[in-house]
Amino acid sequence: MAGPSEHLGAHYGNNILDSADEPWYTVSTMKKRNDVPQTLIDAIRYFTDSDVCLRFVVELRWPDGVTCPRCESKDVRFLAKRRIWECKAKHPKKQFSVKVGTIFEGSALGLDKWLAAMWMIANAKNGISSYEIARALGITQKSAWFVLHRIRLAMQTETFGKLGGEVEVDETFIGGKARNMHYGKRKAKGRGTVGKAVVMGLLERHGEVRVQVMPGIRGRMLRPEVQKHVEPGATVYTDELLSYRGLDTEYAHMVINHAEAYAKGNVHTNGMENFWSLLKRGIKGTYVSVEPFHLFRYLDEQAFRFNTRKDNDAGRFLRVVASVAGKRLEFKNLIGEPS
Ligand SMILES: [Zn+2]
Q1: In what order do the strands lie in the sheet with 84-87?
Q2: What is the 14 CA–ligand 1 centroid distance (Å)?
Q3: Ligand 1 centroid vs 86 CA: distance in angstroms?
Q4: Residues 233 and 138 in one domain
Q5: What is the number of helices (H) and of strands (E) in the chain?
Q6: Mean pLDDT of all residues in the chain?
Q7: Is 38 domain-assigned?
Q8: Other C-beta atoms within 10 Å of 325: how many?
Q9: What total of structural domains would you count in the chain?
Q10: N or C: which end of the chain has fewer CB within 10 A?
Q11: How much is the pLDDT for 59?
Q12: How far is it, in rounded angstroms, from Cα 254 to Cα 256?
């Protein structure tokens, strides 16, 4: 095994032109490499060398070779002493670090801490608080809060295509005293929905979950989301909520009446129920309070872990690192928000 920091300059220098001697990596090829850490303690030891960190992020961020974030040119030069690159094209801000244009941009925190935090967040089943991250990494809670939110951006799953086969669709309420009650049960008790966020979830059985905050539970809000995310002809399982009426024109719509039973054979939304309980355990146990504005980030984080549940810790970590680029604009929305 070659030392990860060997040939750093040569590797980054003219990158794509003379990279034939060393392959650039993707998540799947990286996973097979024997120097990729497998546990948190491995990761912390491995990333104590700042050149190892740099190389690791470069390989996952630019699998086709270092690219100027401003003009997309690959004709760049590595300035070894400063560990930055300079684009050979003529434009302002020719010099850039690996952090430019990513969730790391503008952060003084070393990549060693970032990578350790990424490992922790990607693999904390019930989520992790900024206090825990602060203690573990020896950084301030405020700084840990930003790290946590930025890493969540990297965990946002890009959704492609539609869900098919058997799809469970369900809705839940977050916030307020009734947050752990299913809609059917709450309705039976005649409680209002004031002050609670509505979250809708769609789960392809044995597959992907998609969750989002909704303005309400009316049919005109929920039905278009089913049509947007589920391919026609699929079997859709919902509860008896009236808003789902009419889905049977495009889908095999199976309804479970929760007042009677939680499952009738394979007619149930238990997969979504499991996801809700994971989500709520995380929110209640770890985050203490979730401001409605930030709720979608927690949803993304929990959906990421759920959708990568068949992967191992190293695989989940690599996916997060690989998706750090291109999230900078969204990250700007974080600035100035209350913690
Ligand atoms: Zn350039």
Answers
A1: 76-79, 84-87, 95-96
A2: 14
A3: 8
A4: no
A5: 13, 10
A6: 81
A7: yes
A8: 20
A9: 2
A10: N
A11: 85
A12: 7
Distance 42 CA to ligand 1 centre (A): 36
Residues 147 and 214 in one domain: no
- Residues 66/85, Cβ–Cβ less than 8 Å: yes
Same domain, 178 and 137: no
Q: How many CA atoms lie within 13 A of 197 on its CB side?
A: 19
Q: Helices 141-155 and 130-137: crossing angle, nearest 10°? A: 110
Query: Which residues sit opposite 235 in a β-bridge?
Result: 166, 252
Tell me which of 75-79, 119-123, 308-312, 335-339 is least confident: 335-339
Judged against a pLDDT cut of 70, whether residue 6 lies above it is answered with no
Residue 84: the pLDDT is 94
| CATH label of the domain that carries residue 196 | 3.30.420.10
User: Which segment of 164-178, 213-227, 318-332 scores lowest on mean pLDDT?
Assistant: 318-332
Compute the distance from residue 28 Cα to the ligand 1 centre, in Å.
29
Domain span holding position 136:
4-155
Domain stops at, among 290, 314, 329: 290
Q: 117-171, pLDDT tens digit by residue?
A: 999 999 988 888 889 999 999 999 989 988 998 898 888 877 778 999 999 999 9
pLDDT at 333: 54
The upper half-sphere exposure of residue 217, i.e. CA atoms within 13 Å in the direction of its Cβ, equals: 26
C-alpha 240, offset from chain centre: 31
Distance 95 CA to ligand 1 centre (A): 8
Kindly report the pTM of this predicted structure. Answer: 0.78
> What would the mean pLDDT of 184-194 be, rounded to a whole number?
50
- The alpha carbon of 284 and the centre of ligand 1 are apart by a number of angstroms equal to 46
Quick one: which H or E segment has residue 136? helix 130-137
The DSSP element (H or E) to which 304 belongs, if any, is helix 295-307
Under 8 Å between Cβ of 137 and 117: yes
